[in-house]
Design brief:
Blueprint: E1 3-7, E2 13-18, H1 21-24, H2 30-43, H3 103-119, E3 123-126, H4 136-145, E4 151-155, H5 160-166, E5 172-176, H6 182-187, E6 190-194, H7 195-205
Parallel strand pairs: 1-3, 3-6, 4-5, 4-6
Antiparallel strand pairs: 1-2
Helix pairs in contact: 2-3, 4-5
């Protein structure tokens, strides 16, 4: 099992934590991680884009001029794609972009992403993140103490003050143990998790 250092909010090491290999020590499956990211991004798409083809644009029933003798190129309709106000060639239509992964694939992809962060020494555990007040400056100070800039901060308990304090920091996203996903783990350069969050993740995914 991998051992990681545990830090306090001042950035000082206060102990170590043994991570469960069933979650943080699996063989990294890059293909599943890729599929999980593609699936998540695709599932965010609304799929409501729509444009009219020449068959759907109103008008254009009459031939604009006779076939021969005008000096113009032949034209059959004012709603052909080359005309202003004409239809769109291969126009987009509403569609469902959903890509589904089964439960085992989703779980293994998440474990692979977490394992990769541990292997790269980009998984930091803190003993707690408790704030007496909503203060962005204090949260930024904690990040500076941990020498972290772009981070996904995972908390195990409901900590409104911590969440609200981090809300205005552009390079930081907060999440709870049951809401983490592969895309966020990979998007942010470092994962900062509380001890309770690590325990909750291991309880769900081990």
């Amino acid at each position: 099992m991998a051992n990681v250092s545990v830090y306090n909010m001042e950035g000082k090491e206060v102990g170590t934590l043994e991570l469960n290999d069933a979650v943080f020590g699996v063989d990294v499956n890059e293909h599943l991680v890729h599929m999980a990211v593609v699936s998540q991004l695709a599932n965010k798409r609304q799929g409501t884009q729509k444009a009219k083809t020449r068959a759907e644009v109103s008008g254009g029933g009459r031939k604009p001029w006779k076939q021969k003798g005008t000096g113009h190129a032949r034209q059959g309709s004012t709603r052909s794609p080359q005309w202003t106000g004409g239809g769109v060639v291969f126009a987009p239509t509403p569609r469902d972009y959903t890509i589904r992964l089964n439960k085992k694939e989703r779980r293994l992809a998440l474990k692979s992403a977490l394992t990769s962060r541990v292997n790269e020494n980009k998984f930091i555990v803190v003993d707690e993140l408790k704030f007496d007040e909503i203060k962005t400056k204090k949260f930024q100070t904690v990040l500076n103490n941990l020498k972290v800039s772009k981070a996904l901060v995972v908390m195990g308990e409901d900590s409104t003050n911590a969440v609200m304090s981090a809300r205005n920091i552009a390079a930081v996203k907060t999440a709870f143990a049951n809401t983490i996903n592969v895309y966020d783990i990979l998007k942010y350069s470092t994962v900062v998790a509380t001890k309770t969050a690590v325990a909750a993740i291991e309880e769900v995914y081990a």
